[in-house]
Amino acid sequence: MVEALGISLIEFVFYLINFIILVGVLGKFLYRPFINMLDMRRQTIKDAFDSAEATNRKADEKLANYEKRIANVEAEGRDIIKEATDQARLRAASIIEEANKQADDIVQKARVEIEQEKESALADVRDQISELALMMAEKIMEKDIEVNGQEQILDQVMEEVGTTKWQN
Fold this sequence. Notes:
- Helix 1 packs antiparallel against helix 2.
- The protein is mainly α.
- The protein has three helices and no strands.
- The protein has one domain.
- The longest helix is centred in the middle third of the chain and has 134 residues, at 9-142.
């Protein structure tokens, strides 16, 4: 039957042996290295995934640490700002208190000065009144006059008081 198809049995066996040898050679030199290469590639990919997972865990840990640090820094910043604000308030209160003391001192000095000026002005007024009384006495003594004449002298002295001569 094989001869009826035009194929000789010897050639068929020869082809079959060649095919088996070819499959064996290809299996040994191509298939096994190819499978080994695929296994190595699979292992490399698995290692890369494991490494990536480990790196992601480390990154997550670092991120958590950084977030904690940021939270701590923010808390420290708030504390520093609060402390600085408190110190500024204390300093402002101290400055205000000192300014109030200085203002009280200035007011007290001004009162003393005003009192001194008042005393000085009263002394000047007393001196001027005594001068005025002396002037009136002089005028009255200069003239021998009656009661109506005294009013005239008093008016004359009052006019002189208003002039610049008397003030100097």
